[in-house]
């Protein structure tokens, strides 16, 4: 099994990643309760699986403190600015996110692109800044239903990722999260594994040996997780509401553990 070393210090991360973003949910107390129960349930860690949790900015420091420097669960920020500091009202910097305990920076989610003006240019700036500060950029990419219908999904996603990594000599610390827009959110459609296979094969061929992992996200749940992990090129799952309760998250981690065990 291929291993990577990430973050601040000798954090060894296996191939399969299981992560969740809380989006704009959970108070600080709720987020801490979730993290505390998750830390206890995972015990000494899960061989072959790297869990991570991306809380809202208000809870990042407290959730990070629950996990401490223990690499069994990494924490991340849902967004960060490309400037180290400055007059950017309402933003947080990569430096500030790291100071609050983030090891991962989520960048370029489709909601950020659609509602907050995120572009390929700003995604690339943020990726470069995260890498410069020793953090792991989690680069989100994905096509609309119209692109899917036209049959151009793979090239569309490859172009997004190429733009995000433009000019970078070393992307080995980075993660890619393929999240088709038609599959994410409350009204997203659960994918047939065949619908995402071409994109993951293309990402694996182009970036598989140049990044720390390529994850799938979009209508993931404990019922379909095993099928999705079996898609060639999928190196983990990035999950929304199905993992917002600890039991759901743990079910996904257990599925990943069994998948790793079967492949060993």
TrEMBL record:
Keywords: Cytoplasm, Gluconeogenesis, Glycolysis, Isomerase
Broad class of enzyme this protein falls into: isomerase
E.C. number(s) listed in UniProt: 5.3.1.1
Segments crossing the lipid bilayer: none
Reactions performed catalytically: D-glyceraldehyde 3-phosphate = dihydroxyacetone phosphate
Entry annotated with the keyword Transmembrane: no
Pathway: Carbohydrate degradation; glycolysis; D-glyceraldehyde 3-phosphate from glycerone phosphate: step 1/1; Carbohydrate biosynthesis; gluconeogenesis
Subcellular location: Cytoplasm
Summary of subunit composition and partner proteins: Homodimer.
Protein name: Triosephosphate isomerase
Protein species of origin: Streptomyces viridiviolaceus
